Amino acid sequence: LVPSGSKGKEKAKTATAGDEDYDMEAAQAIIDADLSSGSSDSDAPRDEEEETKKMRKDAKRARKDKETDVEKAERRKLKSLKYQRTNTDIETLNEGIKGFMESRKARIPPVPRPAEVEKLWKGLYPRVKSWWQEGGKEIPRSHIPGIQKTQDRIKEYCKRVEREQAAEVKAAREKFNQKWPETKKSLRIAHPEKTGEEMVSIEAAARIALKEELGAWTLEQLQLKYRFPSDELHTQIQVLGDTMALCNELPSDEHMERKIADLQRAEQQENTESAKRGIREEIAQAKKDKEGNLRKRTKLLQGSLIFMDKLHNYGIPSSEVISTKANTSFFNYIKSSKGNEDLYRELQRELEKPTMEQLNTWEVAALPIYNIVELVKNEESMKTSDESNDIDTWIETIKVHNSKMQMTNKKRGIGEDVNTIPMSLIYQIRDDWRTDNDEQAQKDIDDLLTVLKSHKHAGTVVEAIETGVAPKLLTQSVPSSSGRVAKDSGASLSDMNTTQSQASVHTTRKESPVSTKPGTSHALDLNALLSYDINSFKPRKISTPSSDYENGETEFGPLVATRPCRTDNARFSRFFVNSGLEVEGYEYIKVIRGSELAPGAAEQLDDQKVVEFDLRQRKRDIKNKKHPIDKIGPVVLMEHSEGYKPTGKPRRMDLYIRITYCGKDDVDFLTRTEYTQLAGKKVAEQDCKAHLANHEQTRLHMEASRAQRRHPITRRTLTKHDFEKTPWLFPDDEKKLGFKGDHIDQESEDE
């Protein structure tokens, strides 16, 4: 939905040549007034009568006829500057619509249509563009016969292709019948964890892909593939047109915020409780209206992004089917307020996030990629056959999961190679290592790291390679040393141990592996079994419900703030939880990495209670006494990740300090650097030092209470009631397996 600016640029270059002495400030003021006045044709009301429109145009023409040469030259200069401003804004709107389309160029474009079909499609583009004039409310009756005629021609073309390629299609179908059983079998081997409907869905996608690859299509499939999507385009244009008309009438966020602020000031000035109550109701309604307006604007901006995505999937250039008026209106709407721009950026980031399947594939592939890099970088490597086999095993692991991701991408229609792993670079690293071309292999690793850094979702493996700390092995099925994936989805624990030991970092090969023989690590003595008092056994819960992450509850305590990862990978986000009690002096704030939470928990919590720290705005609020600092502290330290080994000077632990503000519900958890920028170096150092001592005392008391199963305030033994209300106060084993009632003395329970 971005107006093409090539013509505008040419006009601007032509008209502005030799205009250095022109009053740019005056011109800018006139342009601003002109843009806001709605005097141009593009700003005419949608339902304006033809007679009124004609009168307005005649008046404009009459004004031009009366202009002197100087006035005409001045008007042309203003017009060229307006073109220049519009096109410059579009080019520099990094997070705008054009930026969105640029970011999607990594996608594989759809397969080009045959020239005859493409010509038929192009014949309908002008008609689609005209639908924007009335907001897409209905397709003109005069267009319907032409669209139907085009669809009939496409059907006839498909029938002709079927007749001409009958022999080839028949041979392709026979080849498909031969290859499909083998393909189906390999799919089941590659997806041992999938059962039921999931496997049916995977097989259906693979079946379609294989038919397309071999050319074993049917007439119905071909006609559906080349049918012009007139109904889909019309529906989308209708929705966008109606939503745009609605959003244009909405008050801006700035207006609503001023209204709420005025009401809040009025409430403070009132003396009677009844008047204050009435104003509070108005404030609540204003906030509700503001949220409703946000939902409507979100619908418009989401719809526009999805529409652009659909055009890309159809292979239709946006400039061919979107009118200039719609382009300009949408662009002006985004630029009309900071709130719209911010919302658009947020939605854009959301749509560009990798899918869950893509994230899972990268997480599983992180350890094998890390292992390959570590082995190749190891100068003491003897390049034995075992090491070579290990690399092949790791590459097979990556290849299997990458192939699954490609299949899922194709099924979702987002391009087979979108966000996939750069296998060619990994193969190159292996080949150069095997041929003793160590210098080139190191360059290959640098190239791989550069490519990985361009993938926001490859943060796990990038961090592992740069820090030298192996990423945690996820509980996913990986190929065995023979390069094949285990067929049995219910593999034994000993099999899993074997697989994990083979997939571990090569440098730890000489360490004693965990025993993989069934029963050896947990063998029970026969005499102990015969002497065991079976009457002493008390049944316990073997399963407990997981935390309700949607409501901000975690196994570590309730969520109080979130600092999202800059690369939008929730596993690297920081989650601040209260592992103590909501009582002054007994708050025990911890910071948890997303990777420490249960599967899927980080993604659920990532958009809850987000800290959005704007240094400039905070300084202005403090300076103007609008929202001065209310309270400082406590501080919280984040422990180093498991496996951290300092290579030089030990890195100090990350520290965060909580800041609250007067008249503002938002809470900031700032890093040392951020708080230093806000408060100054001297004040920041003093505050952090003072609150750090309090943090250590609180931490010692809370952790000791947990270990002793005592309540932090009453110092009494924890009860079942405590477990139901605050399970995070209990030791880890009890949190997982349930309340140990037999450990409670009767006196405490009665109390």
Automatic annotation (TrEMBL):
Residues 1-83, 478-520 are annotated as: Disordered. Residues 64-74 have a biased composition (Basic and acidic residues). Residues 491-506 have a biased composition (Polar residues). Signal peptide: none annotated. Residues 54-63 have a biased composition (Basic residues). Residues 32-42 have a biased composition (Low complexity). It comes from the Eukaryota. This is Uncharacterized protein. It comes from Plenodomus tracheiphilus IPT5.
